[in-house]
Amino acid sequence: MILRLPYGRGFITADLRGLRCQELRPAAPRHAPPVAELVTGALDRPAAGPSLAELARGRRRVTVLVPDATRKAPLQVELPLVLARLAAAGVRSDAVTVLVACGTHPPAPEAELAALLGPLPAGTRVLQHDAHDDAALVRVGALVSGEPVRLHRAAVESDLLIAVSTVQHHYFVGFGGGWKLVFPGVAGYAEIQANHGKVLDLAADPPRRHPRCEPGVLEGNPVAEEIVATARLRPPDFALLLVAGGAGAPAWSAGGPLEAVFPLACEKVREWFEVEAGPFRRVVVSAGGYPTDHTLIQAHKALDAACRFAAPEAEVLFLAACDGGAGSPAMEPFLADPRAAAIVARLAEEYVQYGHTTLRLVEKTGRFGVLAKTELPRDLVERLGMRPEADVEAALDRWRRDAPNETVGVIAGSLVYPRTMKS
């Protein structure tokens, strides 16, 4: 088996001949209808409620929520179709705001933003959410803990809120996309941290992750349940949801009220992206290429998925360019001293979501032998407990020599999770 593994904006060829390999592929179809056809069907023939064109009639202020560049979404195809229906319903382009739901991610440079969204009608306003911009936030309620909840003014004050997203597994929220586009997508920084902090029980001895904060798990997941409850303070009036196919392009779509279509999308993700395999003593995983391997924050999700199929003390060959570095200045203090005890101590003083990301990472490198093909600085890779591996073929040669009869698990881009993940 010879595979081209996505890496950054290109590929690395891995010669797996001479090894017994089991590629962990999703059951999703590799050949899907054109994206425009999927989107058109979802907008005009929604799973529930009126079509987008019907819903848009008479609206004066419309906001379209879209994911940022860290997510794979064909916005250059989706947005023109959404905006065309608004125009057909009589909504002027200068009454439309496209709001990029960055959450706590940094805004994209102008050129990257233009590439993400594609050409827009003259007069369309584009905003990137900044979780620290208090002037752009409006209070809409409170978390269960009492923490005030603020959402971006453009979302709250619109009389038609449309959300466009791709739904996929999320390593502790259950599923990404959907409700997450509202909260944490366009929420304030403090309330995002308060919500995400529920992933850890720091009062336990030793501190532990909440057992229900897992991919594919919604019921009993305190982070996911609070996200839904909070997003309902300003729910989208119409949601366009997509699920990727086996080749990475969308293969399923649905439109309508988020309450109705999000469960459908989650079930489709479970059906297509949960598999029975392993455990393996050797695993190869690509983080999927740009944008999902652009930063360590995003790329580590692939390592998380791969380790779920790994036997104790297995070796995991992890391919992730990470040419964008860690991904957030908030992660840097944790990377400077990534010992689990030091991270937990910092989080006990003040929860920072990327501290939790670092903790999850060093938990894996402590349990498995992680060989990292990456552009991250060598000293950082080693500090995180990984072994830099510049030559992928050298690692595979060693496996051929040392364990020629063992089956190697391979995840070549589309992430999959064990089928045991249930809500």
How would you concisely characterize the structure shown here?
By secondary structure, this protein is α/β, with parallel strands linked by helices. Helices cover 32% and strands 25% of the residues.
Your description of this structure?
With 423 residues, the chain is α/β, with parallel strands linked by helices. It folds into two domains: 2-24 and 277-418, LarA, C-terminal domain (2-enoyl-CoA Hydratase, Chain A, domain 1, Alpha-Beta Complex), CATH 3.90.226; 35-272, 3-Layer(aba) Sandwich (Rossmann fold). It is built from 14 helices and 22 strands. It has helices spanning 35-44, 52-56, 75-88, 110-117, 153-156, 189-196, 222-231, 258-273, 296-307, 332-336, 340-349, 353-367, 378-383, 392-402, and strands at residues 2-7, 10-15, 20-23, 62-67, 96-101, 125-128, 137-142, 148-152, 160-166, 168-170, 174-176, 200-201, 208-209, 238-244, 250-256, 274-275, 280-286, 310-319, 369-373, 387-388, 407-411, 417-418. The strands form seven sheets. Strands 3-21-17-18-19-20 form a six-stranded parallel beta sheet, sandwiched between helices. Strands 6-5-4-9-14-15 form a six-stranded mixed beta sheet, with helices on both faces. Strand 17, helix 9 and strand 18 form a beta-alpha-beta unit. Helix 9 (296-307) packs across helix 12 (353-367). The longest helix has 16 residues, at 258-273. The two termini are 35 Å apart. 50% of the residues are buried.
